[in-house]
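FORM 12-B: Structure-to-Sequence Request
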C-alpha cells in the first residue's frame, strides 16, 4: 500500500507545503533523467502477492495481526483489510532458471507461512476476490490496525464527502453502499515489477498498457463479489469504484479518477509523474526535511519521498516506480493488472507471459502503440474484465478476435521471442508458456473454474448459495495447495 505514515491531522499549510515539495521533487527527478543517474537495466523482477485469510468454514478470518505474529517473516506484511496479508517476493533474475527458482521460493515461503497461520485457526487463499466475502463483513472495524489505512480512509471520504456507491452489472447485478474503503480490501492482486532504464521505460509502459486486456482475459480470477456472480474480473470495477475520490458532479465534469488506465501513450516516465502532480490533490500530504536539489548538488541520491508517497495514492494499472537501493536510484514498471492466484505456478506463468511479451513489443522496430489507439487498449482492458477467457479484443493487423485465438496465433510466439531475449532457460520458457497455451486451448482460467464449480453445486446441485460458495472455495484451496495449473482442475 506504499509508504508508511503516522496518523495526523492535516492543515491547509501542510497541503501547500506538500504540493511545493512534490514540484521540487519533480525538478530533481528531471535533472536526474538529464544527468543519467540511474542504475543500468538488469533482467530483474520483484513480485507482490496479496492473500486472503479464511477460517475453518472458508469464511473471512479477521486475524492478520495474529497471523503475521505467527509467521514472523518480514516478507509478509499487512494489507488494507484484517482478512488480507501480502508477501513481497525479493527481487530475482528473469534469465536462466530465475523464474523456476522464484516459483520454488514462493511455494516454500507460502507453505511455511500456511503451517504457522494454521495455529491461529486461519489459512491463506490466493484468489482475486474472496468468494465467501459478504456485505456483512465490510465494516470500518475490518480495516487493518496500521494507522495508514484509517488515515487513507478518512482522507478519501473527506475528498468524496459522501458514501461509496458500488454498482456492477454482470451475470447478476450488485448495488451496495459503503461508509469506508473496506470494499477495496476485497481486491487482491499480483504485482509484477520490472526494472528498466529511463530510456526504455516508455516503451515498456506502453507495451504493458497495450497487452493489459489480454493479460486479464487469460488471467481473470474474480467472478464473485458479496455472494453474487458479476464480471469475470470483478476486481477491476470494484477497485475503480471503491477508491474513487470524486463526487458525482466531478465525474460529470470529466475529472480524472484515482484508479486510472490513463489517456495516452507516453514518451518519457516524466510524463506520468508530471500528470500525478498536475491532476491529483494530495491524499496524504506528509513532507520530509529533504532538499532534493541540495542532495543532488553534493553528489548523493535523493529519496524523493513526497513524489513516491503521492504516486502511491494514484492507482494506475501500470504504475511508474522510483526507488533507491544501496544508494543507487532505479526505475520500475509495476504491472498491477492481474488478480492473485489461482496457484503459484499459474502466477509465474502469467509473469513469464508478461515479461516475454513486453520485451518483444518494446524491442519491435514498429511499436504496437503506433498502430493502435490508446482508447482501443482501454476498451480491450474493460472488455476482458467483463468477459474473461471468452473476451474479444482488438489487435492491429488482426482486427477484433477472441483473446485466446490472438494469444495462440500471435502473442505466444512473441512471448517466446521476448523470453529468449531475456535469456530465460528454454525448458523453463516452454513449461510456463505451455500453461498459458493450455488455458487458451481449454478455455479455462480461475474465473471460469470458479463459476463452473459454483453452478455445479448451486444451480445443478442441492447447496444453498453460501454453502455452494464455501464448497467451491474448499476445492479451490485444495487445488491451490497441489499447485496444479488451473486448466487441469476438474469440475465434477
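FORM 12-B RESPONSE
SEQUENCE OUT:
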Amino acid at each position: 500500500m506504499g509508504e508508511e505514515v503516522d496518523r495526523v491531522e492535516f492543515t491547509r499549510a501542510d497541503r501547500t507545503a506538500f504540493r511545493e515539495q512534490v514540484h521540487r521533487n519533480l525538478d530533481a527527478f528531471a535533472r536526474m533523467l538529464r544527468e543519467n543517474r540511474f542504475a543500468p537495466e538488469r533482467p530483474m523482477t520483484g513480485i507482490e502477492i496479496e492473500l486472503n485469510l479464511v477460517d475453518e468454514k472458508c469464511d473471512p478470518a479477521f486475524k492478520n495481526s495474529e497471523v503475521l505474529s505467527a509467521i514472523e517473516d518480514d516478507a509478509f506484511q499487512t494489507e488494507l483489510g484484517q482478512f488480507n496479508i501480502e508477501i513481497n517476493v525479493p527481487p530475482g533474475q528473469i534469465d536462466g532458471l530465475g523464474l523456476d527458482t522464484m516459483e520454488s521460493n514462493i511455494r516454500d515461503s507460502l507453505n511455511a507461512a500456511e503451517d504457522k497461520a494454521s495455529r491461529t485457526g486461519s489459512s491463506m487463499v490466493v484468489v482475486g476476490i474472496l468468494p465467501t466475502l459478504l456485505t456483512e463483513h465490510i465494516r470500518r472495524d475490518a480495516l487493518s490496525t496500521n494507522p495508514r489505512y484509517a488515515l487513507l480512509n478518512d482522507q478519501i471520504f473527506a475528498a468524496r464527502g459522501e458514501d461509496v456507491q458500488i454498482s456492477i452489472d454482470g451475470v447478476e447485478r450488485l448495488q451496495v453502499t459503503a461508509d469506508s474503503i473496506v470494499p477495496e480490501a476485497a481486491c487482491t492482486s499480483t504485482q509484477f515489477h520490472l526494472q528498466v532504464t529511463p530510456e526504455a521505460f516508455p516503451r515498456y509502459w506502453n507495451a504493458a498498457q497495450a497487452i493489459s486486456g489480454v493479460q486479464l482475459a487469460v488471467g481473470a480470477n474474480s467472478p464473485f463479489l458479496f455472494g453474487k456472480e458479476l464480471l469475470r474480473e470483478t476486481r477491476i470495477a470494484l477497485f475503480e469504484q471503491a477508491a474513487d475520490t470524486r463526487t458525482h458532479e466531478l465525474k460529470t465534469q470529466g475529472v480524472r479518477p484515482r484508479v486510472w488506465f490513463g489517456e495516452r501513450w507516453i514518451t518519457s516516465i516524466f510524463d506520468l509523474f508530471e500528470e500525478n502532480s498536475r491532476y491529483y490533490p494530495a491524499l496524504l500530504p506528509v513532507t520530509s526535511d529533504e532538499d532534493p536539489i541540495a542532495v543532488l548538488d553534493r553528489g548523493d541520491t535523493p529519496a524523493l519521498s513526497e513524489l513516491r508517497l503521492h504516486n502511491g495514492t494514484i492507482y494506475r494499472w501500470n504504475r511508474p516506480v522510483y526507488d533507491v537501493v544501496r544508494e543507487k536510484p532505479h526505475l520500475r514498471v509495476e504491472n498491477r493488472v492481474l488478480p492473485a492466484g489461482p496457484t503459484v505456478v499459474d502466477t509465474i506463468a502469467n509473469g513469464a507471459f508478461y515479461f516475454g511479451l513486453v520485451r518483444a513489443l518494446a524491442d519491435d522496430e514498429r511499436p504496437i502503440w503506433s498502430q493502435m489507439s490508446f482508447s482501443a487498449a482501454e476498451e480491450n482492458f474493460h472488455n476482458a474484465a467483463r468477459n474473461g477467457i471468452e473476451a474479444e479484443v482488438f489487435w492491429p493487423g488482426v482486427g477484433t478476435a477472441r483473446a485466446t485465438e490472438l494469444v495462440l496465433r500471435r502473442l505466444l510466439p512473441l512471448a517466446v521471442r521476448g523470453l529468449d531475449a531475456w535469456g530465460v532457460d528454454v525448458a523453463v520458457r516452454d513449461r510456463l508458456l505451455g500453461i498459458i497455451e493450455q488455458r487458451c486451448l481449454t478455455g479455462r482460467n480461475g474465473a471460469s473454474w470458479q463459476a463452473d464449480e459454483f453452478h455445479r453445486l448451486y444451480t445443478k446441485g442441492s447447496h444453498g448459495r453460501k454453502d455452494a460458495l464455501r464448497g467451491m472455495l474448499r476445492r479451490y484451496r485444495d487445488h491451490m495447495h497441489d499447485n496444479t495449473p488451473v486448466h487441469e482442475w476438474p469440475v465434477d
